[in-house]
Amino acid sequence: MAEFILGNSLRKLARANKPLQNALWRLDYALVWVLVKLFAALPVDAASRLGDRVGRWIGPRLSRKHAIFKANFAVVFPELDDAGLDALARDAWGQAGRVLAEYPHLEALYHDPQRLQVEVMEEIETFRDPSRPAVFVGAHLSNWEIMASAVALKGVPVASLYSPPTNPLLDRMLRDSRAALNCELLPRDNSARLMMRCLKHGRSVGMVMDRRVDDGSPVPFFGRDKLSTLVPARLALKHHCDMVPIRVERLQDARYRITFYPPVRPRCEDAGQAEQAEDMIAQVHELFEGWIRENPRDWLCSKRLWPKGKIDPSVQAADADEAKSRNDDD
């Protein structure tokens, strides 16, 4: 989510002006509150379709974020021209709007077996014995929020990692909606320690891991090294549990197929733990690549994933803004 929506052009000034920052946060909260109330008043499929239109309208107007979408898609689809990248980015914004529109309907989705079609490709130990936890990993595809619900539907207690929005008012709103996911929410800060504690107490953990992690390790992703977290693989190795990739596919409107893939294991058992963890993440990246190429419009790639290189100047400006925002958050 953008740091500011209605006041996006004032973000630099707002960081140095607390009253202005609070005012913009309230404006953004008011906008999202109105939208969420509107979405909640509609049937879920109608809300999802309206969210698509809202996302397509608002997203491209956040010019720097839109440029990052296009820069990421340009790596995945180098054959596309600017018009093709722009169209793909608009499709992705539409999917982001659908995710927002479906927040007030998460509980209804969870209780409607016609909307969540769960498939398991291979027997997974934790589904047979929930006391044996697993590490679940996925990408920002379709509505990634429902991954935790799919795990809960299999009778497995799970804690899910999330990144709080900069705006604390929106954070509270989203946490209230996420209560319907039937999982414990773990904030990004100190996440490794929190996930380790969950696993020790027999609770599975889940996270989306297709974003860049500045203190991560370089792992190939679409032919280029991406700084990626090794935490899920390290946790799985340390606690002798499965690391299970989850794919979420939007079938039509607010209907989904959630597929649990076979657990990922090191290809070389004689390698050191660090090499094994990196190999496991590389295997997950390979899965993500296939999913994204198959349905690129479902991918929310609103953060720069690869080194800057020769990219659009507006993307470089957005990178500087993101870095400044992370420093402010710290």
Describe this structure in words.
The protein is an alpha/beta fold. Helix content is 49%, strand content 15%. The protein contains 13 helices and nine strands. The chain has a seven-stranded mixed beta sheet, with helices on both faces. Strands 6-7 form a two-stranded antiparallel sheet. A hairpin with a 2-residue loop joins β6 (217-221) and β7 (224-228). The protein is globular and about 55 Å long.
Give the N-to-C terminal Cα separation: 18 Å
- Any idea what the radius of gyration is? 19 Å
Give the low-pLDDT segments.
Answer: 310-330
Secondary-structure element pattern, one letter each: HHHHHHEHEHEHEHEEEHEEHH
- Helicity, as a percent range: 40-55%
Strand order of the largest sheet: 1-9-8-2-5-3-4
Counted by DSSP, the helix tally is 13
* Biggest sheet overview: 7 strands, mixed
From the spread of the alpha carbons, the general shape counts as globular
- Beta fraction: 5-15%
Q: What's the total count of β strands? A: 9
Alpha-beta content class:
alpha/beta
Whole-number mean pLDDT: 87
Helices and strands in order:
Blueprint: H1 11-15, H2 18-41, H3 44-58, H4 63-76, H5 82-102, H6 106-110, E1 116-120, H7 125-128, E2 135-138, H8 147-153, E3 158-162, H9 168-178, E4 184-187, H10 191-200, E5 204-208, E6 217-221, E7 224-228, H11 231-238, E8 243-252, E9 255-260, H12 273-294, H13 313-329
Parallel strand pairs: 1-9, 2-5, 2-8, 3-4, 3-5
Antiparallel strand pairs: 6-7, 8-9
Helix pairs in contact: 2-3, 2-9, 3-5, 4-5, 4-13, 11-12
